[in-house]
Amino acid sequence: MKFIIYLLAMFLFQDIVALDLEKAKIYKQEHNIIGWYMSEKLDGIRAYWNGHNLLSKNGNIINAPKYFTKNFPKFSLDGELWTTRNDFENIQSIVLDKKPSIKWKEITYNIFEAPNIKGNFIQRLTYAKNHFKKSKNIYVKFIKQIKCKNSDDLDIFLEKIILLKGEGVIIKKGDLAYQEGRSSNILKVKKFFDAEGLIIGVNYNKKKKMKSLKIKLSNNIIFNLGGGFSDIQRINHPKIGDIITYKYYGLTKYNKPKFASFLRIRKKE
């Protein structure tokens, strides 16, 4: 069993990312973000359009209906497949289904980048917007970008998103060409962090109800996750080998998540 779990961990956490997309770092107060562009961070499935297919962040084809990608351009796009706030499980079940269902009509493609277009951030987005002005698609939207005045402006915007049950904010330096990989020129701003881990064990109480899950992270840190579960989830709990998403509020001196609580099971993208 331990060997099987090890193989699962190697498969699920190895660096198999086929797409070197732009990735955000964590915002800190010392960052000077005056004049940057801020937008809501949508809690959906990230999807890259390569000119032919929608791909997940791991480079796997997303089986979208043909009507959904009608009039998509030959140049690349980056965006979020999304419905509404606080609806991730529904989005995931629709988007990651091998056979597209009628429920795809609930999904929109919310664009935040056009990676291969020359120019700065706003010029790239404008180029993509002009394409869809000529070639209409009712499932395409562009995530609103707001110029940030200062850190207080960012705080107010974040609070507004949180009150609407949104996930957080992305803030990006607007005068640069597209940059692949993790960059300090694009930052994510949240009240809490989230991450994923592999379930390698289950701890039970005396009543044989799940007390906590033993979680292994990609850096080999192991911790017990006991918060965030409903009574039903403690009976019908996630299984060994599942990947789960949890939220936390910083790290301990041993690099373990503080005040971690369960959010959901994550399907493989």
Describe the structure.
With 269 residues, the protein is of the alpha+beta class. The protein has 2 domains: 22-189, D-amino Acid Aminotransferase, Chain A, domain 1 (2-Layer Sandwich), CATH 3.30.470; 193-266, Nucleic acid-binding proteins (OB fold (Dihydrolipoamide Acetyltransferase, E2P)), CATH 2.40.50.140. Helix content is 19%, strand content 31%. The protein is built from 5 helices and 15 strands. It has helices at residues 2-13, 88-95, 121-134, 151-163, 231-235, and strands at residues 22-26, 37-41, 45-49, 54-55, 77-82, 108-113, 140-142, 146-147, 168-172, 181-189, 193-204, 210-216, 222-225, 243-248, 261-266. The chain has a 5-stranded mixed β-sheet. A 5-stranded mixed β-sheet has the order 4-3-5-6-7. A 5-stranded antiparallel β-sheet has the order 13-12-11-14-15. The longest helix has 14 residues, at 121-134. It is globular and about 65 Å long. Mean pLDDT is 91; it is low at 1-17.
